[in-house]
Amino acid sequence: MEPDPCLRLDAADGIATVTISNPAKRNAMTGAMWRELPSLLRRCAADTGVRALVLTGDGNTFCAGADIGALTEGDEASKGLAVAAEDALAAFPKPTLAAVRGYCVGGGCQLAAACDLRFAAEDAFFGVTPARLGIVYPATSTQRLVSLVGPSAAKYLLFSAELIDAGRALRTGLVDEVLPGEELDKRVAEFARVLVSRSRLTQAAAKEFASGPAGADRIAHWARESRESGDAAEGVAAFLERREPRFGWAPRP
To answer: What is the rounded average pLDDT of the residues 182-201?
Structure first.
């Protein structure tokens, strides 16, 4: 008997891992799973022990998209759930990394694109497939895709609904690293530990600035945080003393 579709959350050593699990349908996202993801992300955001988040799929596939069997023609509510989950992931205040093997298609590709970084196994395939179903891809999702791969590659994916392999995804900028399948988990764990070791101040400011133009008030805010945090002084001292830095800045609750 197949287990019920779910999102599993595990946390250890500052790293939260969210696993999309619906093996009977290549980890397709059900309505309940779309609804659950934003609340799960809020819990991780509020947990001061979580420094980075990894999103992955159960077994040998990442996510085949939305569970089409649960959708109805013109079901705007279902599409809205996916957009809300994607937006919540993009807005997550800590570094996020998608670990992709197998199929990363439709809503699964939406979720991967909403992460800060994407590492893929060599056997991964990516596709943005609304043109197969006559669905208008959401504006925010389209813009996020364009920001990753550029207008031409985004149009190729959206117009054709064709799948591309990991090598092409790497060349277009859709993924950041491609590895042999047996090395993916090790590399993701290694890189997540790197993220946990770095300055949260630098990461938080960089994530906000990278999301779009910053107003003068936000630039002033981060300048003030930098002055008051002591992270820069600690980083320089650690470098000169040839030791790992002990950065002290943490986001205010």
So the answer is: 97
| CA 209 to centroid of chain Cα atoms | 17
Assign 75 a pLDDT band (cuts: 50, 70, 90): low
Per-residue pLDDT reduced to its tens digit, 10-45: 999 999 999 999 999 999 999 999 999 999 999 999
Provide the whole-model pTM. Answer: 0.93
| CA 96 and chain centroid, separation | 5
- What's the pLDDT at 66? 84
Task: Write out the H or E segment, with its range, that includes residue 177.
Answer: strand 177-179
**Would you state the torsion angle of the CA atoms of residues 6, 69, 175, 42, taken in this order, to the nearest 10 degrees?**
-40
Inform me whether the pLDDT recorded for 72 exceeds 60. Answer: no
Per the structure block, which two tokens stand in for 34?
């779309």
Partners of 195 in beta bridges: none
Phi, psi at 56, each rounded to 5°: -145, 180
Q: How far is 192 from 87, CA to CA, in rounded Å?
A: 22
Between CA 155 and CA 174 the distance in angstroms is 13
Q: What's the CA gap between 109 and 64, in Å, rounded?
A: 8
- How far apart CA 94 and CA 200 sit, in angstroms, is 8
Angle between helices 216-229 and 200-210 (to 10 degrees): 170
Q: Residue 74's pLDDT band (boundaries 50, 70, 90)?
A: very low
pLDDT digits (tens, 9 = 90+) for 156-182: 999 999 999 999 999 999 999 999 999
The Cα 198–Cα 249 span in angstroms is: 11
The runs of H, that is alpha helices, within the chain are 31-46, 76-90, 107-114, 139-149, 151-160, 166-172, 181-197, 200-210, 216-229, 231-241
